[in-house]
Design goal:
Structural class: mainly alpha
Shape: globular
Largest sheet: 2 strands, antiparallel
Order of helices and strands: HHHHHHHHEEHHHHHHHHHHHHHHEEH
Distance between the termini: 48 Å
Helix content: over 70%
Radius of gyration: 32 Å
Number of helices: 23
Number of strands: 4
């Protein structure tokens, strides 16, 4: 109930400008999902591309969007948010129009590989910058969760739109430019072009919102080109760290399960229309997937606060998602089987998805989390391209045309085995990590702290002096047991970090050092108590300062994966 009250209060605190940002993002994501769900099958049916070529076009398009994500934030703030969004909306609108109406491949390449990736990447930072500008830090988590739910709801709306147009106009419509019947003035729009047209209309609404309603504001962060170059240079300098190689090793291991998104967008629509029938509602299945993931994350919870639990959840979740794929091997499955596959796969993704996204927090040093995230972006590009290539090869081999296909169910057997490689590799690596030392947002690790404390030269000198005094006492002849015990007790006190003290002898021979100034006190016991208490305080300060300094850039020797 407390979280619900804070969540409702966060909604009430959202200003009008933030709701405008929400609408802009919803229109943009609706258009994006219309392209994502239909791009591959649109290229095959309307442009008569081969299966492999269509899959490669899908992979290149999404890879370009991810590649431009890094510099887009700096350009976004440099141009100011309003002008950046005007430019992004203009590029997106032109790109969507070209993709919808283009017949020539050259125009398609310009719209798909130039205009749309630039517009999508340039509009990505809008929500993050607006969140910092309008929402207090206490409520940003709840507003981000609300944005996550709304964005995934747009996937369901886009999927329902695609299926509605396919069922309503299975042969498409003809748009006649003039009153005559000249075919040169007639444009045929297939159901997939109509879906892209709806996405174009959504981008047009986004453009008018940005132009007329969105307000201008100045972000507080400095995002110069020099800072962008520094970030890239700092990322390359991290390659000597063992923890980065460990992180990349984990990202390579999860390649199998990360390709599953490409198979849902490329393989499943083509497989469903050719094996289950022309009117099978693959758009609804694609749209239900993100909503099931949202519900499953709300049930199973998000990423863990300890690395061991996080690592195990990735392995278990990827095994669940991979095992669900084998349900599609059943010949002529019913809708219940397909929905069960989608639901089980979404439950598995709720386990591994958030934990994979937060891996950099556990493995990266405190100052290099953003640099490790940049490396993760390049691996996401690799995952997308790998999934597109695998999908094209499998479709070209086992599902080349509408008829005379041999064992099309083998596609899902091979995909399931590829996805199962992720939990197998992770279980093999789980013994290589000493993951009990990792903690979320930890500045240092336990074993590094102990090693730094023991290697402190000041403390090491103190231990050597203590050993020397005890050795001399043990070898001195004629010393009584009481004298040796007293000297051993005094020698065991830490004395190496004592500040130099200058005292003035009094008539009684007593000198005090309180606050580094000599004061006369009575009694030897009090003098000894002050002299032994102060070094302990100094030593504690030395230890704490040593820990805080070593928390940033030092590398844990147990982080190495490839070095053993």
């Amino acid at each position: 109930m407390q979280h619900l009250s804070v969540f409702l209060k966060a909604i009430r605190l959202c200003p009008q400008e933030m709701w405008v940002v929400f609408l802009i993002r919803l229109f943009e994501h609706y258009s994006f999902f219309c392209v994502q769900f239909t791009l591959a099958i649109h290229l095959i049916e309307d442009h008569h591309f081969s299966l492999m070529k269509a899959a490669l076009y899908y992979g290149i398009y999404h890879s370009l969007v991810l590649l431009l994500e890094l510099p887009s934030y700096y350009v976004f703030v440099k141009l100011t948010p309003k002008y950046s969004m005007i430019l992004a909306s203009t590029l997106l609108l032109l790109g969507r129009v070209i993709i919808t109406y283009s017949v020539a491949e050259v125009n398609l390449i310009i719209g798909l590989f130039v205009l749309c990736p630039l517009g999508s990447a340039l509009s990505m930072p809008l929500f993050v910058v607006s969140l910092d500008q309008y929402i207090p830090s206490r409520y940003r988590v709840f507003v981000t969760s609300l944005h996550f739910v709304f964005v995934n709801a747009m996937a369901l709306v886009a999927g329902c739109t695609i299926d509605t147009l396919r069922f309503w106009k299975p042969d498409g419509i003809d748009i006649v430019s003039n009153s005559g019947n000249d075919p040169d003035f007639t444009t045929h729009l297939s159901p997939y072009r109509l879906s892209l047209l709806y996405g174009t209309v959504a981008v047009a609404l986004q453009f008018f919102l940005v132009l007329g309603v969105m307000k201008q504001f100045e972000p507080a962060k400095d995002t110069s080109v020099k800072r962008l170059k520094h970030s890239i240079t700092k990322t390359f300098k991290c390659f000597h760290k063992k923890s980065l190689w460990t992180y990349m090793g984990v990202l390579i291991c999860i390649t199998g399960i990360r390709t599953l998104t490409c198979h849902i967008d490329i393989t499943f629509p083509i497989f469903a229309t050719r094996e289950y029938g022309k009117f099978f509602g693959f758009g609804l299945i694609q749209g239900l997937g993100p909503m099931f993931v949202v519900l499953a994350i709300g049930i199973v919870g998000e990423s863990q606060t300890e690395f061991n639990a996080q690592f195990l959840r990735i392995a278990i979740g990827s095994a669940i998602s991979a095992g669900a794929i084998f349900l599609l091997v059943i010949p002529d499955p019913s809708w219940l089987v397909v929905v069960a596959w989608l639901l089980i796969m979404s439950i598995g993704e709720a386990f591994w998805g958030p934990n994979v996204r937060s891996l950099a927090i556990f493995l990266a040093p405190h100052k290099h989390i953003s640099n490790y995230s940049n490396v993760s972006t390049f691996f996401r590009i690799f995952h997308v391209m790998a999934g597109a290539v695998i999908s094209g090869i499998l479709l070209q081999t086992y599902l080349p045309n509408q008829s005379h296909n041999t064992d099309p169910e083998r596609i899902w057997i091979i995909i399931g085995c590829i996805c199962l490689s992720t939990p197998l590799f992770l279980l093999m690596l789980i013994q290589a990590f000493r993951y009990q030392h990792y903690r979320r947002h930890a500045a240092i690790f336990v074993d590094k702290t102990e090693g730094k404390h023991n290697n402190n030269p000041t403390i090491q000198k103190s231990n050597d002096d203590t050993y020397t005094q005890q050795h001399q006492q043990a070898t001195t002849p004629g010393s009584s047991a009481r004298t040796r015990a007293s000297q051993s007790t005094q020698a065991s006190q830490p004395t190496t970090t004592q500040a130099p003290q200058v005292g003035k002898q009094t008539g009684t021979g007593q000198t005090s050092f309180s606050n580094n100034r000599p004061q006369q006190i009575g009694g030897r016991g009090r003098q000894q108590q002050q002299q032994t208490k102060q070094p302990q305080h100094v030593e504690d300060d030395v230890s704490s300062s040593t820990i805080s300094v070593s928390s940033d850039d030092d590398e844990d020797p147990n982080l190495g994966l490839l070095s053993g």
